[in-house]
Amino acid sequence: MTERFPLFSRCLSVFWVVMVYAFLYIPIIIFFIFSFNNAPFPAPWVGFTLHWYRALVYETDIWVAVGNSLMVAMSAVLLSSCMSIFLVFYAVSRSSKIKGLAAYFYGNLIVPEIVFAVGFLGLLTMLKVPLGFITLVIAHTVLGLGYMVPILYSRYCELDYRLLEAAQDLGATQLQAFFTVTHPLLKPSLLGAALLVFIISFDDFVLAYFCSGTTFQTLPLYILSMLRVGVSPIVNAFSTLLLVLSGILVIIYSSLTIRNRIF
C-alpha cells in the first residue's frame, strides 16, 4: 500500500506527527496566552494585561514553596552527585565483585514512582521517622541515584585507562589522578546528570505528596492546593515562567549531552 501510494503515506505520516505535537503543545499555548488575559480563568479573551504577573510577585506563599522545592532539589543533586562519584569510581570500578552493582540502579527507572513512594512511606512509618524536609531529600536522592549512577558509569567505562596509568606513573596518587584526569573527563556527564536530577526533583509531585508530611510544602503541592479552590490566572503566569526556566535547563542539558558525545 505504501509502495503504491508514496504520497499518501507521506501525507499520513505528516498528519500524525502534526496531531501528536498539537496534542502536546496546544494546552501549553492556551495557558501561556491566558496568562495575559484581563479576566479570571476560564473566561473568553478580554484584553492584554500583566496584572497576574504583578500579583505573582506579591504572592509570598508561592515563593516560599519555590524556595522549599529549590532546597530539596539542590540537596538531592549534591548528595546524589557525591554518592554516585563514590559508587562509580571507588566501588563499582575498583572491585570486580560488585561491578554489577550499577545495574541495580536501573530499578528506579523501571519501578513506577508511586510504588517507590508508597514503599518508602511504609519504611518511614515502620521506623517511626517523622515526615518532613529530611525524608523528602532522602527520597529524592534515592530517585536521583537511578539517573546519576548509570550515566556516570557508562561514561566512566568509555574512559581511556591509559591516562590514569600515565598519571600514576608520573607520581600522582589515586586522588590526584581523579581530580586531574578522571573528574575533567566526567564533568560534562556529571553536569548533565545533575541538571536532569534537578529538573526531576524540582517538579516531582508523587514523592512530595507521600514523603513531605504536613509541615513542609513544595511547589507542586502548593499548586495542587490552589487548584482545589479554582484555577487562578496566577497559576498560568507562574507556569509560564516555570516553563521558560525548564526550557532553559533542558537546552543546557542537551548541549552538555551533545558535547559529551562529540568529545
Describe the structure.
The chain has 12 helices and no strands. With 263 residues, the chain is mostly helical. It has a domain at 60-232: MetI-like (MetI-like fold). Helix 2 crosses helix 12 (233-262), helix 3 (60-92) runs antiparallel to helix 9 (174-202) and helix 8 packs across helix 9. The longest helix has 33 residues, at 60-92. It is globular. The protein starts with 5 loop residues before the first helix and ends with a helix. The mean pLDDT is 80.
Largest sheet: none
- Unreliable residue stretches: none
- Tell me the β content: under 5%
First-last Cα distance: 44 Å
CATH superfamily name of the domain at 60-232?
A: MetI-like
Supply Rg: 23 Å
Estimate the mean pLDDT confidence.
80
- The oligomeric status of these chains comes to single chain
Give helix % range.
over 70%
The CATH topology assignment of the domain at 60-232 is MetI-like fold
Tell how many strands the DSSP assignment holds.
Answer: 0
What is shown here, in short?
This protein is mainly α and 263 residues long. Helix content is 76%, strand content 0%. The mean pLDDT is 80.
Provide key terms for this protein.
single chain, 263 residues, mainly alpha, MetI-like fold, 76% helix, globular
